[in-house]
């Protein structure tokens, strides 16, 4: 399950990187230089942009490893760790989300519907990884692995469909965060391809669909012009997830009904609302990530 596309995660990271304190930024830069993928992340950029490029690339690296064939990341038969930075070679797909149950109108949540507990999934991993980074040596190669995960997961849980699974007549055991909720972004969107368009994929791309450094930086500058109130920046991860789950109910699932014979066509007003909400979530994620990293690394 992906959350935001690469451009969305990179925009969260760009906002955060611009708001790190000098000391926190220097420590983050040094940590990411220990990552096995650092050379690849910085291969095509100037030395002046290397640290920023590495930070942005780290923001979606844990999605990239789902398709990594070079080193053998897998959740089925992972090989032994190939680098001191990697505690294991698992993809850890379940780290990216939690499944709070949400019921479609007129539908009851089945008693046997398995959900990730409030202290598990992405929330549990954010708390656990923050603790690992705080209490392990900054010189440990594994800091780079867990830092990349933290950058990514903060973005993940601000995507509303990474916090809920909606039970409907068509999907009584949950729709996997909208992955099973088929939609048509336009009336003529084909449904006969290898992967049908779904609500989750639509929201992944809602903030920005172009992965280029100029596009990411331009959106990051635009969104960062207005700083959130301190109480919002310092809100704990439980609050981020509560917000996302509420937005899923109030906004995301207003797309239509997934129990109709034909998938709903997303209206222009819905798409405009989705873009505004997605960008606000990216903005908050960026400032909250900066606050978290400043707490971790701007200290003696």
Task: List segments where confidence is low: pLDDT < 50 over at least 5 consecutive residues.
Answer: none
Q: The biggest beta sheet, please?
A: 2 strands, parallel
Report the top-level CATH class.
Answer: Mainly Alpha
> What is the 3D form?
globular
Number of distinct beta strands: 2
Tally of individual domains: 1
Please provide the ordered H/E string of secondary-structure elements. HHHHEHHEHHHHH
Report the total helices: 11
Task: Determine the N-to-C terminus distance.
Answer: 38 Å
Strand content: under 5%
Mean pLDDT: 91
- The gyration radius over C-alpha positions equals 19 Å
Q: CATH superfamily assignment?
A: P1 Nuclease
Strand order of the largest sheet: 1-2
CATH architecture: Orthogonal Bundle
Q: CATH topology, which one?
A: P1 Nuclease
Can you give the helix content as a percent range?
40-55%
Structural class by sheet pairing and helices: mainly alpha
Pfam families: S1-P1_nuclease
Organism: Chloracidobacterium validum
Keywords: Disulfide bond, Endonuclease, Glycoprotein, Hydrolase, Metal-binding, Nuclease
Protein name: S1/P1 nuclease
